[in-house]
Amino acid sequence: MQHPVEISTFRLICPICFPQKFSMIDTLKLGIPLSESQYKRIRKVSADCDRWQWVMLNEFTGDLLFRRVSGMAKTDGESFHRELRWDIPSHYEPDCKLSLEFSVPKYWYGHNIHLLYDFVEALRHLKRSLETQFKLKTRAQLPDVTTWQVFRVDICYTWKFPSQQSCHNFLESLKRIHFPRKKPTIYPTALMFAGTTYSLKFYEKLPEFKQHDRKTLL
After folding, report:
1. Whether the Cβ atoms of residue 21 and residue 13 lie closer than 8 Å to each other
2. Which residues pair with 102 in a beta bridge?
3. 1 within some domain
4. CA 20 to 30 Å from 46, out of 96, 105, 187, 189?
5. Per-block average pLDDT, block size 10, for the chain (218 residues)?
6. How far apart (Å, rounded) are the C-alpha atoms in residues 215 and 208?
7. What whole-number distance in Å separates Cα of residue 2 and Cα of residue 25?
8. In a domain, 3, yes or no
9. Hey, which residues does 65 pair with through a beta bridge?
10. How many folded domains does the chain comprise?
11. DSSP 8-state assignment for residue 139
12. CA distance readout (Å), 4 to 7, 31, 133, 146, 210
């Protein structure tokens, strides 16, 4: 890992018939090393599309928006989007990287309700998709996923409750706690302790799913 972890996400998912806790990787921000020939190929392919975006076909989830966001390498986006965001520098340098930010479960499943543990398999599938998207063949293929640099990782812990009300009551109890050197931001169904190096966020999954993902999946 090349940089400290910046953001950690905690989720509360309900309803379910018993309380249980799991953990997984959710959003990743990656830097994929590029050779000069790979960089030129990606620049050429993306220049042929004035909207800088495509639809990427994933046999697991269907069509996913694959969109370029200029300047993404230096900023953090919102992790709830069901799309893959990417960018490359305006000029090639020896340490040039393809920046990629996305939710691994949403790429693999189409949503992040189910937990994903074998994210390496998902990344290898994504590598093949990117090579197809950018027409990188044989010697021009991207390096192995084990060489990709990680700039952000959202580690997600999930608590399951017997009812939506018990989930909400638990979140309300957390709003009374204090976290060292982090000022809380309180929402009706969420709680966030923001920081410069990492942040903590607690939220109810059902309201978040209804607001961001349901209209996409239905």
Report:
1. no
2. 28
3. no
4. 105
5. 33 32 76 95 76 59 70 61 82 93 86 78 91 86 94 83 87 86 86 83 76 56
6. 12
7. 17
8. no
9. 55, 83
10. 1
11. G
12. 9, 14, 30, 18, 32
